[in-house]
Amino acid sequence: MDKGTTLQEDVAKGAYKQSLKTLLPYGMLATKKWLAEQGLSAHALDNAVKTDTLLLLATGVYSQYSRSVSWEGVVASMQRMERRDGEQLPPVVVGGLSALSLSGLSQYLSLGNTPHIHLYAAGKLPTWLARLSLPVEFKGHSTSKLWPESLSKDKAFVKEYEWEAELPPVYFSCPEKAILEVLMDLPESVSFEHADELMQGLVNLSPRKLDTLLTTCKSVKAKRLFFWLAKRQSYSWFSKLQVKDYDLGSGKRVVAKGGKLDAEYLITVPSHMASVSEG
Q1: Residue 164: helix, strand or coil by DSSP?
Q2: Cα separation of 278 and 270, whole Å?
Q3: Which residues contact 265 (CB under 8 A, 6 or more apart)?
């Protein structure tokens, strides 16, 4: 027992530390707001920082001291805090290129020195994400023009990445969902050539999952691009999808500026790729 403290104070301190380990295990982080909602006072947090129990990662964001936090820990922590009572899934998931990478279907590295972790949500990402000093950059994507809310909450289209034992998993889009998320950013952030390379690796997609995703997907551009790219590969799952069953909108869409119009899907594509497709 420390000098000047009572047995009751020591017991309370021990219980507090145990509570903190439960709420904030090594490798995870939490915001001041979330910790307060779990019953930790601002005074207790301040003391934890002063005694090197907690590390202040950014204003209002904490982790346990003596352990660095990886991007997986950041995302798992965010998903845990963002999830509301009764919800099966958090409102934000790892998607697009990052999800394909987690499935082992993309070896593509981000251009430049800083890898991107692509996060998909209907709303905006927490502002504290940008304040963290990590060797990665979190890139937010809105799903409001891609999926209805019901699809975003469907666990059938989300996988769990067990990045460390006894810690919450990272939730990420299944490959069928992830490729449509990627195509939303074509050609602004993803090139036709890169998308074509990705499609070449998607040998074993589920026709059943694709049917639901293509039926509910709100983006005509993503759906037309998906069918155009899928046709180039002629995988067995593609033959089980009937294009006429899906709403591909009407009229021509310019996707590749200065490209050639694909007569079947009415999208402009790079001329050098159009000749291969038509051949």
Answers
A1: coil
A2: 12
A3: 224, 225, 227, 228, 248
Confidence of residue 14 (pLDDT cuts 50, 70, 90): low
**Contact of 175 with 99, CB cutoff 8 Å:** yes
Using a 10 angstrom Cβ sphere, with 0-12 exposed, 13-18 middle and 19 or more buried, the burial of residue 116 is middle
Bridge partner residues of 20 (DSSP): none
3-state class (DSSP) for residue 214: helix
Q: What is the DSSP string of 190-213?
A: S-HHHHHHHHHT-TT--HHHHHHH
pLDDT of residue 65: 84
- Residues 28 and 69 sit within 8 Å (Cβ to Cβ): yes
Question: Collapsing DSSP states into helix, strand and coil, what is residue 86?
Answer: coil
Maximum mean pLDDT: which of 6-10, 224-228, 275-279: 224-228
Q: Which residue has the higher pLDDT, 88 or 132?
A: 132
| Alpha carbon distance 21, 166 (integer Å) | 13
Cα angle 70, 75, 81 (rounded to 5 degrees) comes to: 125
Residues near 208 by beta carbon (within 8 Å), at least 6 away in sequence: none
Average pLDDT in the 263-271 region? Answer: 96
Is residue 255 a contact partner of residue 267, using CB atoms and an 8 Å limit?
yes
Q: Rounded to whole angstroms, how far apart are CA atoms 74 and 43? A: 24
Structure tokens at 47: 């003391």
> pTM surpassing 0.85?
yes
DSSP 253: B
Q: Distance between alpha carbon 268 and the CA centroid of its chain, in Å?
A: 29
Rounded to 5°, angle at Cα 234 from 229 and 239: 105
CB–CB of 259/186 below 8 Å? no
- CA 146/CA 214 separation, integer angstroms: 10
